[in-house]
TrEMBL record:
Full protein name: Malto-oligosyltrehalose trehalohydrolase
Family: Belongs to the glycosyl hydrolase 13 family.
Hydrolase recorded as keyword: yes
EC number: 3.2.1.141
Biological source species: Kitasatospora indigofera
Length: 577
């Protein structure tokens, strides 16, 4: 017999249905709102007050998808490799964001694991997996997932994820998992039937907020922290990326993020492993990563869109939407971000129509993730076009150099390292026809407001959209992809072998630039990262001191005393005297 339990505080009767047979559960005298009881092992579902069968909110496996019955998982049965693994620290590391479904044509954990040698040779330290919780259909980004304790079956289910993590660890790569606590998908979300998992007290872009501070929120917080700890404990994940934490509205004295960070730190001690949390937040608030003892929430790091926006506008000249503030003086914006962490550190944000952010502590640049491209910044464009669709190899190389020699923790998006020619578009596989059509219409309506014709916007439900977004692994060996890949590998070697190039102290960074001539020099100890993005033809860029020799060049350059003659759209890393 197996013990079943579920939190359903508003139910008057709860049954567990196992392989077609029903067994009545009894209230748990020790825990208000919980029901428990014994029944045979097998695929199961819960019935509340005689209602339809519903999957377990804490289901470890959904073999038939989000709406099907649940299945138990014996985590102790998996045979992990004997190779010792205690994790690796985030400071000084480089991350690589990866979507399992489009990283390879097969779209599985096992197929992705077969490509991990590429990442080892590239020189990154962590693989960051986009969400892997179950969602309707086979294909999707994963941000509309449900069943926060389970793994998407088409990717390979629980066993497939464990094999991937085990293989990564054997190759010396850590694994970070993107998790979504701020909302659940519109289809397959049965949590409201069980209890007050959501509240009308707060609202988010996805509707009612997850209940973190209203009545019943103790159990909801335990549900989310339990899920997070299960990924770290049962799957040996090394860190979690928390999606859009600014949407986790919590008025309690102990904020959910602080509670979660403390729980993760305790697990790290008891398991003798490096474990950490990384937030996605648009608040530009250093308290997110500040120590709990000083009133912060204690997360290890957070994404920095300010760095992306400044770098993006510098390279592309785009100025629409939230790029407007950065595009006014893009090289100046980039210089500010490299030396002060955020562009909006209490400054006026025209996109928001108000002042935004507060100053970032300069000694902790590693607490900000810096990137040239991400799933958001590519996939949320109308065509899902990567920078490689519009920029030259030289411009891509300049962006790579500024990311990989920055004082931040760098992150790459899959295929970026060779300038992938494939787009990365928004795709879904909703099984509900009405929802599928609503998503299709909504996507086209959104971009029609920006001048796009409906037939120009890829259909999220079309199989061809997923196919177009899948990496082409023949490209890395072809021109010009191979040359850009070599440049990324070289930059990563330089970063590892020259500590000054990954020093997180923002106060030690100096940036010289000329907005009109479009050159920029980043001073990193004795090293200079020199970029010429000006008009056609070579340009003499001052180094600020006599140089001792060029370490790396993408393009052509010539030395001339205390300056460097650099070709158009070229980049060099030099050591000064």
């Amino acid at each position: 017999m197996t013990e079943y339990e579920v939190w359903a505080p508003e139910a008057e009767r709860v049954d567990v249905e196992v392989e077609g047979s029903r067994f009545r559960l009894a209230p748990d005298p020790a825990r208000a709102g919980w029901w428990r009881g014994l029944a045979p092992a097998g695929d199961y579902a819960f019935r509340l007050d005689g209602g339809p069968p519903l999957p377990d909110p804490r289901s470890r496996r959904q073999p038939q998808g989000p709406d099907g019955p649940s299945r138990a998982v014996d985590h102790g049965a998996f045979r992990w490799s004997d190779t010792p693994w205690h994790g690796r620290p985030l400071p000084g590391a480089v991350l690589y964001e990866l979507h399992v479904g489009t990283f390879t044509p097969a779209g599985t954990f096992d197929a992705a694991a077969e490509r991990l040698d590429h990442l080892v040779e590239l020189g990154v330290d962590f693989v960051e997996l986009m969400p892997v919780c179950p969602f309707p259909g086979r294909y999707g980004w994963g941000y509309d997932g449900v069943s926060l304790w389970a793994v998407h079956e088409p990717y390979g289910g629980p066993e497939g994820l464990k094999r991937f993590v085990d293989t990564a660890h054997r190759k010396g790569l850590g694994v970070v998992l993107d998790v979504v606590h701020n909302h659940l998908g519109p289809s397959g979300n049965h949590l409201p039937a069980f209890g007050p998992y959501f509240t009308d007290r707060h609202h988010t872009p996805w509707g009612s907020a997850v209940n973190l501070d209203a009545p019943g929120s103790d159990e909801v917080r335990d549900y989310l922290t339990g899920s997070a700890l299960a990924w770290l404990r049962d799957y040996r994940i090394d860190g979690l990326r928390l999606d859009a934490v600014h949407a986790l509205v919590d008025d309690r004295a102990l904020h959910f993020l602080e509670q979660l960070a403390a729980e993760v730190d305790r697990l790290a001690v008891t398991s003798n492993r490096e474990l950490f949390l990384v937030a996605e937040s648009d608040r530009n608030d250093p308290r997110t990563t500040g120590p709990r003892q000083a009133g912060g929430q204690g997360l290890a790091a957070q994404w920095s869109d300010d760095f992306h926006h400044a770098l993006h506008t510098t390279l592309t000249g785009e100025s629409q939407g939230y790029y407007a503030d950065f595009a006014a003086e893009p090289l100046g914006a980039l210089a500010k971000v490299l030396t002060r962490g955020w562009f909006h550190d209490g400054s006026w944000s025209s996109f928001r129509g108000r002042h935004h952010g507060r100053p970032f502590p300069p000694a902790y640049g590693h607490r900000l993730l810096g990137y040239l491209q991400t799933h958001d910044q590519i996939g949320n464009r109308a065509l899902g076009d990567r920078l490689s669709a519009t920029l030259t190899p030289g411009q891509l190389a300049a962006g790579a150099a500024l990311v990989l020699t920055s004082p931040f923790t760098p992150m790459l998006f899959m295929g970026e390292e060779w300038g992938a020619g494939t787009p990365w578009q928004y795709f879904t596989d909703h099984t509900d026809p009405e929802l599928a059509e609503a998503v299709r219409r909504g996507r086209r309506r959104e971009f029609a407001e920006h001048g796009w014709q409906a037939d120009e916007v890829p259909d999220p439900q079309a199989p061809g959209t997923v196919l177009a977004s899948t990496l082409d692994w023949s490209e890395p060996a072809q021109h010009p992809h191979a040359e850009l890949l070599d440049w990324y590998r070289l930059l990563l070697r330089l970063r590892r072998s020259h500590p000054e190039l990954c020093d997180p102290d923002l106060a030690a960074v100096r940036v010289d630039h000329d907005e009109e001539l479009r050159w920029l020099v980043v001073h990193r100890g004795p090293y200079r990262i020199v970029v010429n993005l000006g008009a056609e033809g070579p340009r003499s860029v001052p180094l600020g001191a006599p140089h001792a020799g060029t370490l790396a060049v993408f393009g052509r350059c010539e030395a001339d005393g205390d300056s460097l003659e650099l070709a158009h759209n070229s980049t060099a890393v030099v050591r000064t005297g």
